[in-house]
Design goal:
single chain; 107 residues; mainly alpha; 91% helix; rod-shaped
């Protein structure tokens, strides 16, 4: 979690407090009713926590995909090297067989 995320969360909570307090005062409602202001703060705080939680999960998933991608590349590279080695062996055997076959035909 970056400090920028924490700062944005704090700004969300403070702005929810100010917005709710001023909005209730505008309708000549008793701004002393702190339950409404508190519930708005809790709601926005929970929203901020949920957004941060989703962000952290997405980062974990991204790291997991990156690590799997790296391991797949390494595995594919080793398979490619094994296939190249075997193909070179088979090519050598086929070339030897063709060479011996051609020697027999020219005798």
């Amino acid at each position: 979690m970056e400090t920028r995320d924490i700062v944005f969360s704090v700004v969300m909570v403070v702005s929810a407090f100010v917005l709710t307090y001023e909005w209730l005062g505008r309708f000549k409602y008793s701004p002393a009713n702190s339950l409404i202001v508190l519930s708005a703060i809790v709601m926005v705080g929970a929203l901020a926590a949920m957004i941060l939680s989703v962000d952290m999960r997405l980062r974990r998933i991204e790291e997991s995909i990156d690590s799997r991608d790296r391991s797949m590349r390494i595995s594919l590279q080793s398979v490619e090297e094994n296939i190249d080695h075997r193909m070179n062996e088979v090519t050598g055997v086929v070339e030897d067989a063709l060479e011996s076959f051609n020697r027999r035909n020219y005798r």
